[in-house]
Design brief:
By secondary structure, the protein is mainly alpha-helical. It has four helices and two strands; from the N terminus they run ααβαβα. The protein has helices at about 1-20, 35-45, 65-75, 100-105; strands at about 50-55, 80. Strands 1-2 form a two-stranded parallel sheet. It starts with a helix and ends with a helix.
Length: about 110
């Protein structure tokens, strides 16, 4: 199936970029099913620290707002919603802030 091959290649490229950027541990998985439910279940079962998903676009089928909500509320993990295209200054300044109450609940 062409979509399966494209997904596998995309996951491999993303993993290679993460390793090249210095990520200590990179893992990928290819699952079948409702994307939002699969993401939420995988995150719970594999102690995922953060879920990153693309922002829904008006004329796009995936990801949908329902998928984002399912990943956020059913996974119990923080969700980072990425823009459709990286901003021009991507990677120049990196700041992540987590409210103390959220951090205490997560760790």
């Amino acid at each position: 199936n062409g979509a399966l091959v494209a997904s596998t290649m995309s996951a491999r490229r993303a993993a290679a970029r993460a390793r090249g950027a210095g990520a200590e541990t990179v893992s990928t998985a290819l699952e079948v099913g409702d994307p939002a439910s699969v993401i939420a279940e995988y995150a719970k079962a594999n102690a995922v620290d953060l879920i990153v998903m693309g922002r829904p676009l008006p004329d796009s089928v995936a990801p949908s707002m329902a998928a984002l909500e399912t990943a956020l509320f059913e996974s119990g993990r923080p969700l980072l919603i990425a823009p459709p295209t990286p901003p021009a200054g991507m990677g120049e300044i990196g700041v992540v802030a987590v409210a103390p109450a959220i951090a205490n609940a997560m760790f």
